[in-house]
Amino acid sequence: MTHASQLLSALNVPASQTTGGSLQVRSPIDGAQIGAVHEATKQEVDAAIARAHEAFLAWRNVPAPKRGELVRLFGMHLRQNKAELARLVSIEAGKITSEGEGEVQEMIDICDFAVGLSRQLYGLTIASERPGHRMMEQWHPIGVVGIISAFNFPVAVWAWNAALALVCGNSVVWKPSEKTPLTALATQALFERALAEFSQQQGMAAPALSHVVNGKAPVGEALVDHPSVALVSATGSTRMGRAVGPRVAQRFGRCLLELGGNNAIIVAPTADLDLATRGILFGAYGTAGQRCTTTRRVIAHASIHDELVSRLERARKQLRIGNPLENGTLVGPLIDKGAFDAMQKALRGAREQGGKVTGGDRALEAQMPQAWYAEPALAQMPAQSGVVLEETFAPILYVLKYEKLDDAIALQNAVPQGLSSAIFTNDVREAEAFMAASGSDCGIANVNIGTSGAEIGGAFGGEKETGGGRESGSDAWKAYMRRTTNTVNYSSALPLAQGVKFDV
Ligand code: UN1
């Protein structure tokens, strides 16, 4: 697919960065090789971190609204290059065109959010118990932020982290997925253009605020173990998070983990079934089931279960599978053979557990023998066990039945992951019960809308094996800063807190 090289050159990525390296990059669309990227050595990772740390030392003293100006310029470059970057996302990650564009739009949105935030890094003032004293808190930059991202959102996840980290006064070092290094290099090239413009505008030398280190696990490990990386923000599988979390904790670094999901939609008796069907269809089969927020389970009330399943079946069969760059395609390829094999294994497991499975076969093998397309699958399950408890990154929807809402909520919560969840109901009591403390245990709990496609304005992340981190909107920025509590005595006495006396 020569088109990737044209896009890379339009995005100002030097050919030397994307050819001749040991990391082969393939497009999941047809399996063709589209690049060969250099893999960073440990020394190179260390050097990038050292440069990022040096940049941080200066950047932390730049007023936050000025830091916002850099992110504003970056957002402008993203706007100007949206079509090219989005197409590269489609080619490298296999997303359909509108989802590739949506991904770049998320980057633009988070830049806008971060620019506003750069004037709103508020700390509290706190009433002191002592006369003539004042208490307050300040939020200061934390240092180098290491970002580890996954193939399925190859650039947006970096942007959620980087835009906030930069306005907060930090620098970033990015290890993208080894499956999607090209979009990372293109994003970095756009950022460097913004940085050059900013530096010229400010009359200063461009600080080395952002670095990309490509490669496999050892590159991630070098980032994770480095004492100068104050925060490691990692998105990916629970297995990856289990490896990263303790290593960062070992050196008392900070972690922001956004790991697997096993997201469910409860469909209640009063649900608008048209809406529910559409929400489930996009949630389960959009992005070929490769979002951490993908709908993996439907828990349907017995009274509407059969009707819902027949609607889903009808719609599922109409989904057009194919080249994601072609108009009308709704389901693109899986990222690679490993993903297809995992899907087949899960479907075998579902059948062994008594599930009734439709779909799931390989598609378009004759046209694209080196690529891995699959029919979306639906599995009606007798119980929630085995494969249903696992996150399989593929378009498989498990359907379960319930009688009482409490049972549905218990089922929805009875998985190890806790990212996203939803209920379709027109009963306000049910909707509120689902969102209450005793309702969904996930980081995201929606009503009459699916589990995926969250806006950047809210905090994004989840509980349990999802890792507990929150990225993106609301007050997620606080994870990228350190808090200092300041007590100032403006009296001429020295009263101790809690009334303690200590006079000689
Ligand atoms: C992910 O799959 O890693 O809610 C994140 C969504 C997107 C984010 C998905 N905004 O689907």
UniProtKB/TrEMBL annotation:
<dbReference type="InterPro" id="IPR016163">
    <property type="entry name" value="Ald_DH_C"/>
</dbReference>
<dbReference type="Pfam" id="PF00171">
    <property type="entry name" value="Aldedh"/>
</dbReference>
<feature type="active site">
    <location>
        <position position="258"/>
    </location>
</feature>
<comment type="similarity">
    <text>Belongs to the aldehyde dehydrogenase family.</text>
</comment>
<keyword id="KW-0520">NAD</keyword>
<dbReference type="InterPro" id="IPR016162">
    <property type="entry name" value="Ald_DH_N"/>
</dbReference>
<dbReference type="GO" id="GO:0004029">
    <property type="term" value="F:aldehyde dehydrogenase (NAD+) activity"/>
</dbReference>
<protein>
    <recommendedName>
        <fullName>aldehyde dehydrogenase (NAD(+))</fullName>
        <ecNumber>1.2.1.3</ecNumber>
    </recommendedName>
</protein>
<dbReference type="InterPro" id="IPR029510">
    <property type="entry name" value="Ald_DH_CS_GLU"/>
</dbReference>
<feature type="domain" description="Aldehyde dehydrogenase">
    <location>
        <begin position="21"/>
        <end position="484"/>
    </location>
</feature>
<dbReference type="InterPro" id="IPR015590">
    <property type="entry name" value="Aldehyde_DH_dom"/>
</dbReference>
<dbReference type="InterPro" id="IPR044638">
    <property type="entry name" value="ALDH7A1-like"/>
</dbReference>
<dbReference type="InterPro" id="IPR016161">
    <property type="entry name" value="Ald_DH/histidinol_DH"/>
</dbReference>
<comment type="subunit">
    <text>Homotetramer.</text>
</comment>
<keyword id="KW-0560">Oxidoreductase</keyword>
